[in-house]
Amino acid sequence: MEAVERALDWYAGEMLLAEHPPISASDAAALQAVMRRERPLEPGQIETLVRFTHTMFLVTGKAPEVPSCVLGDALTALSALGTNASERFPWRWDPGLDAEAFTKLGFSETSAGIAQSQRANREDWQAHAKRNRAFIEQAASGCTQKELAVVLGAGQAFDLPLLELSRAFERLVLVDIDGEALERTISSTIKDPGLRARVEARVLDLSGINGQFVRAVDQVMAKSGDADEIAAELSSLCRSYLLPERPRLLGDDEHADLLISDLVLSQVAWPQRVYALRLYEERFGKLGGDAERRWVVPFWEFELRVQQDHISSLAGAAERTVLCSDVISRPTLLDAAGVERETGKKIFALGVASLLERIPKFFQVEQHAAWQWSRYRAGKGGAAGSRMDVEGLLLSEPPTP
Prior knowledge:
The chain has helices at about 1-15, 25-35, 45-60, 70-80, 100-105, 105-120, 120-140, 160-170, 180-190, 195, 210-220, 225-240, 270-285, 290-315; strands at about 150, 170-175, 200-205, 255-260, 320-335, 340, 345-350, 365-375, 385-395. It has about 400 residues and is an alpha/beta fold. The protein folds into two domains: about 1-80, no CATH class; about 100-395, 3-Layer(aba) Sandwich (Rossmann fold). Strands 1, 2, 3, 4, 5, 6, 7, 8 and 9 form a nine-stranded mixed β-sheet that branches. β1, α8 (about 160-170) and β2 form a beta-alpha-beta unit.
């Protein structure tokens, strides 16, 4: 909270003197009022907050003496403020598997799709996997103790050094929402009975809200009303999102030496958006133009906040934390000569240009790496490909005074 307020105060005294400030004086003042609990967060203000914090990220990169503030700080502050708490939609974090939500959100199909894409783009996926594994193995080698390692998102482990982790740590806990995919991965990767005895599979919903979200969307879609009325209801649902307390990934008596969140962050709230859009378009037809933007923005805000709660859930759980995520997707197409080229469009999976912008002050960044992953190639007939900017962070936490 203090980091955001200090940055806003600096911005009001310095950046607003610029000829074309990234956000206006009135927008900056409105954000200050939110942070001081003088007014609630209004629809659309998160978009302003993204622009403000990205500006501060760029400024402090060139002038370290300027008060630093990134989007991760701002979203964490909003959660602490609780400005959008709703009696109508009382959210709670429940990581237990909800079978109905698992089916409706299509997690089994997603797992199968990942495996199919990996087979179809083996060489490019291996190049990414090599970088990803090396980053994780280096982080593991620096652990002072090696009693417990925990991996989140281990269901499709093509880019995870699971065998090496099982050898290095006394216990290895592998977490995924797809229990069948997780068991297949363990069986095919760790075949030695002695090593297998060290491995525990846990089926968890890392968003903690899938069941609640699916039921709420189903209730909204069951109501009478036109397209605008239902869209407004869904917007209210998204903007009501607020967990009453920070999620806890491990038990009260557990503290990991190494905690790994691998390619989870960008996906933790994506299936929910896809599900709601499918139901909406089945009823009202395909979205486009201004109507599409009005529909997308509240779901984008919801994604950012669920993502931030996932990052917060990593705090206090381990001596060292590895966070790997795709950050930007760059679509590609074949040109007239059949050469694959980027279209120039960028899709920001985390709302920012760098994973560093999502890390709040209660983490210290020990190491940062970045690489590109050609996830799938463009094809003939206008089939688009995708090149992903991936980043890895090794995080620690300052010792408690």
